[in-house]
Design a protein that fits this description.
Distance between the termini of chain A: 41 Å
Helix content of chain B: over 70%
Shape of chain B: globular
Order of helices and strands of chain B: HHHHHHH
Structural class of chain A: mainly alpha
Strand content of chain B: under 5%
Number of domains of chain B: 1
Largest sheet of chain B: none
Number of strands of chain A: 0
Largest sheet of chain A: none
Distance between the termini of chain B: 73 Å
Oligomer: heterodimer
Number of strands of chain B: 0
Radius of gyration of chain B: 18 Å
Number of helices of chain B: 7
Structural class of chain B: mainly alpha
Radius of gyration of chain A: 19 Å
Order of helices and strands of chain A: HHHHHHHHHHH
Number of domains of chain A: 1
Shape of chain A: globular
Number of helices of chain A: 11
């Protein structure tokens, strides 16, 4: 029991600590590719610490939803992160929920953020909310289908089981075509859901086309810190999903301290690699026009659907 | 001992074939003409990799020659010709299509499912190196055909045609371990000459109509 609590505690700490680092690393990669020196990799920690010390300013027209949303968003995103195997494949919390719970815990946070964007009554917030609703409703089917395709190869929707079986190469159907399609779909979904460049620009606060930043425009102080930290954790959860579901090798399959140590190290390397990849993609591509986002998410949906079809028709 | 590398090899071929299919979808969703040409070159790289793998696994040497020809003709020469055409035409993107992109993607998805159903009864009968390649080859042929129908610009129609040819080559390599070398040489020559002719024809179209929209050809003009 104590052992299990310890593991969950370590995973919570890893998620909380690594999330700002990933955000900082992506910014650093982008800065270097633009021939700037850029802020240090650990700058987001300082930003968060500063924001937590600042006094929040809350508009008098807002209701309780506005002040409750940062806590709900942060808690639901962290809970979603605890359902994903991060450095050890068999996590004690895996009884609490499977892939579907994960997707809808993330959707719960998005839902409240959309409400909060509307709550302040500013035009910008409402625009951001409406766009976020479009993006969220388009990514959800693609995400569910792509993870289902992977769940079929392992014969379970429990993430711990999928990762454990894949890591040991036991009892799974190795199948490059559906795996590749599901990976491509999930990667596009990850970019869209976390507001990265082809869909949204995380580096802007002054654009008519922004999505996530428009919704959180009214937040300040500790509320903004919680929202930004939650956004970082959400990004980290997606990167973890991609890294551990599709390439879980190196993850701790036993609970010895040595295996867990190696697991954490390998995890950091994998997540950093993905962060560098995302930074590079953000530097290479321009943001899509809002009405072209459906094209990109259409590709993700079709690929996820085809991954399922390939599995069912050709192996069924 | 002999079984294991063959299994890994066949999975590698499947992986390359899946990459070919992925680039197909990227071409269907892409509006910028130069990006379409780049994606076609990338697809040809994957095709050459598939051919090289099949040659390595089966030990049939003339497939290596075909793979080398793919690299020279489809990765280097044809994309350069097409880019010159695009540069001269001064059109960078395709805004109006016969079928819009989300619908086009859905149709392509249906085409893939259709080719799954068509090839499903055939696969257990033969002795194929891989499970997916034939399905993917048929799907690529259909998607290339669809691209030719859905797009209006002559350049993207050429790319659709070339994608179709890539699918045919993949099918021939996966199902029959390649055609005889003389046939392959003939096909490559055909494709090269075809791309050249279409390039010249596109220039003529531009001169006559100030546009490379092929639907203008249906209008009578004095």
């Amino acid at each position: 029991m104590l052992h299990a609590l310890l593991l969950v505690g370590v995973q919570t700490i890893v998620l909380l600590v690594v999330a700002p680092f990933v955000v900082g690393l992506i910014r650093k990669v982008k800065a270097r590719l633009q021939c700037r020196r850029g802020a240090g990799v650990f700058q987001p920690y300082a930003d968060l610490a500063k924001l937590f010390r600042k006094q929040p300013v809350v508009s008098t027209t807002t209701s309780w939803i506005f002040t409750a949303t940062p806590y709900i968003l942060f808690a639901s995103t962290l809970a979603a992160g605890l359902l994903v195997p991060v450095f050890a494949s068999k996590m004690p919390l895996n009884f609490a929920g499977n892939i579907i719970a994960l997707v809808y815990l993330l959707a719960l946070g998005t839902f409240f953020l959309i409400l909060a964007g509307l709550d302040a009554g500013s035009a910008f917030g409402g625009m951001g909310s409406s766009r976020e609703a479009i993006v969220a409703s388009l990514t959800e089917p693609a995400m569910i289908l792509s993870i289902f395709a992977i769940a079929l190869t392992a014969g379970s929707t429990n993430l711990s089981t999928i990762v454990h079986k894949t890591a040991l190469l036991e009892g799974i159907v190795t199948d490059p075509a559906p795996h590749l399609m599901a990976l491509a779909a999930l990667f596009i979904v990850a970019l869209a859901e976390t507001g990265r460049v082809p869909v949204d620009n995380p580096a802007t606060h002054l654009e008519l086309t922004m999505i996530h930043e428009a919704m959180v425009l009214e937040y300040s102080g500790r509320y903004l810190a919680l929202v930004e930290w939650a956004a970082g954790i959400k990004l980290l959860v997606f990167l973890t999903l991609i890294a551990n579901v599709f390439a879980p090798w190196g993850i701790a399959t036993t609970h010895t301290p040595a295996a867990i140590g190696i697991g954490i190290l390998v995890y950091l390397v994998k997540v950093s690699g993905l962060a560098v990849l995302i930074g590079t993609i953000e530097s290479m591509f321009a943001k899509l026009r809002l009405f072209r986002v459906t094209d990109l998410l259409g590709v993700a949906f079709i690929l996820a659907l085809l991954a399922l079809v390939f599995f069912y028709i050709l192996r069924g | 001992m002999q079984q294991m590398p063959l299994q890994i090899g066949s999975q590698m071929v499947d992986l390359c074939a899946a990459l070919l299919l992925l680039t197909c979808f990227a071409i269907v969703a892409q509006r910028r003409l130069t990006a379409c040409v780049d994606l076609f070159a990338l697809q040809s790289v994957f095709l050459a990799a598939t051919a090289g793998l099949v040659a390595f696994l089966t030990g049939i040497h003339h497939i290596y020659v075909a793979a080398a020809l793919i690299v020279v003709i489809k990765v280097i020469v044809i994309p350069r010709i097409l880019k010159q055409v695009i540069e001269r035409l001064n059109v960078s993107r395709e805004l109006v299509m016969n079928v819009n992109i989300p619908t086009g993607l859905l149709i392509c998805g249906i085409l893939v499912i259709l080719s799954c159903f068509i090839t499903q009864p055939i696969i257990p009968i033969g002795f194929l190196l891989t499970r997916d390649s034939l399905t993917i080859a048929l799907a690529i042929v259909l998607i290339g055909f669809f691209t030719m129908i859905a797009r209006k610009k002559a350049v993207t129609q050429v790319i659709g045609f070339l994608v179709m040819e890539n699918g045919l080559f993949l099918g021939a390599t996966a199902a029959a371990y390649g055609m005889p070398l003389i046939v392959e040489l003939g096909v490559f020559f055909d494709v090269l000459v075809g791309a050249l002719i279409i390039g010249i024809y596109t220039h003529r179209l531009q001169d006559a109509f100030d546009s490379v929209d092929t639907s203008k050809l249906t209008v009578l003009k004095e």
